[in-house]
Specification:
Translation Initiation Factor IF3, three-stranded antiparallel beta sheet, 37% strand
């Protein structure tokens, strides 16, 4: 099952903190499979005339498969004798 984690940070002097948080999370979750990622940024001037910068990192991932036999998916029942036989997609 795909899962998602989102990191976001504003103002340029805090991006080192963002980097540290992402690296810490990746280190704490070494067994994950990263499926996709998106990095988005925005910059502009707020109503008070001050500038802002925002960075958002979205990581889509799959948790590692458990070694427990109770959580392993059942193997597909495939007839290897007939290569033209269609697989049952309802499995």
């Amino acid at each position: 099952m795909e899962q998602v984690v989102i990191f976001t940070q504003g103002s340029s002097n805090e991006f080192e903190d963002l980097e540290n948080r992402v690296n810490q999370w990746l280190g704490d979750n070494e067994g994950i499979e990263i499926v996709s990622r998106q990095i988005m940024g925005a910059a502009g001037i707020n109503r008070e005339g001050g500038s802002y910068v925002n960075c958002t990192i979205v990581i889509f991932y799959r948790a590692p498969a458990s070694d427990s036999p109770d959580t392993c998916p059942a193997p597909l029942d495939v007839n290897t004798d007939d290569p033209d036989e269609e697989l049952d997609s309802s499995v």
